[in-house]
């Protein structure tokens, strides 16, 4: 465990996963469901580079990215429902969302595709690292505060150029039953560029509407275990609530607080004493 006190942490663990697990039913039905979805996913995975190539297609690019992300989610057994306001077709918007899973990248991409701010280690991964570089992911070392201003500068530059940038200000993944506070640093980029922030709230549900942690990627969890839960769940519905645009007025802390209120709504942000904290994966 990294003892750096500045790293975002959450206390979510296997107990959170048990609390939001969908009873998956008959063993044969589960095996069939998993095999069918895994086969569909295997067909789609080789097309991941299309997400990068879509950026070369001009106005048609975002539509292609949205369509591909929805296909990947459908293969995983995830259905997307959008609520709230419309996603405005504006240039230079900072999208701020809560963070539950690696699947959030496809969920947000299915609604409002853009460039993601992701952990720096991801760029060095053998396969995903190449895709991250193609997609011009903005790497961030969350344990190195001295490099943070440079990241803010890159985000601001992208926003001024009319690009959509997606950030997860909680800084790490939470199970979806609890949430972290929004760190204000990246909101400075929106203020410096004079561009608005689009709040998105992502929540995973079972088919009967109860909260689901099938997609969660927390604590000692592995990507394989998270993927398996999605493939075997009866049906996962992810609701994406689009909040009102937040204009870049005031300082970054005020802008972060306003955006957090729009994303998390009446859901309380759980605070933990250091002794109760557990390090979680800094997913994309």
TrEMBL record:
Keyword field contains Glycosyltransferase: no
Entry-linked Pfam families: Acyltransferase
CDD domains for the chain: LPLAT_AGPAT-like
Domain of life: Bacteria
Keyword terms: Acyltransferase, Lipid biosynthesis, Lipid metabolism, Transferase
Molecular function, one GO term: 1-acylglycerol-3-phosphate O-acyltransferase activity
Entry protein name: Lysophospholipase
């Amino acid at each position: 465990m990294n003892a750096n006190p500045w790293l975002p942490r959450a206390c979510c663990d296997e107990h959170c996963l048990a609390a939001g697990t969908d009873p998956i039913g008959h063993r044969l039905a589960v095996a069939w469901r998993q095999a069918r979805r895994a086969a569909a996913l295997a067909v789609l995975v080789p097309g991941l580079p299309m997400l990068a190539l879509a950026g070369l297609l001009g106005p048609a690019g975002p539509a292609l990215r949205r369509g591909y992300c929805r296909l990947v989610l459908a293969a995983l057994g995830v259905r997307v429902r959008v609520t709230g306001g419309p996603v405005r077709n504006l240039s230079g918007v900072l999208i701020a969302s809560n963070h539950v899973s690696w699947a959030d990248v496809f969920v947000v991409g299915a609604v409002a595709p853009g460039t993601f701010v992701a952990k720096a280690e991801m760029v060095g991964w053998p396969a995903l690292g190449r895709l991250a570089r193609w997609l011009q992911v903005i790497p961030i070392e969350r344990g190195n505060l001295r490099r943070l201003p440079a990241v803010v500068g890159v985000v601001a530059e992208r926003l001024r150029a009319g690009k959509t940038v997606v950030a997860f200000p909680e800084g790490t993944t939470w199970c979806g039953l609890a949430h972290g506070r929004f760190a204000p640093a990246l909101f400075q980029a929106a203020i410096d560029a004079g561009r608005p922030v689009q709040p998105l709230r992502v929540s995973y549900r079972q088919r009967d509407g109860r909260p689901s942690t099938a997609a969660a990627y927390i604590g000692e969890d592995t990507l394989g275990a998270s993927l398996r839960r999605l493939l075997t769940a009866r049906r996962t519905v992810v609701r994406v609530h689009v909040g009102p645009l937040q204009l870049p007025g005031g300082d970054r802390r005020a802008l972060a607080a306003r955006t957090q209120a729009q994303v998390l709504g009446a859901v309380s942000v759980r605070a933990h004493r250091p002794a109760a904290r557990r390090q979680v994966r800094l997913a994309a």
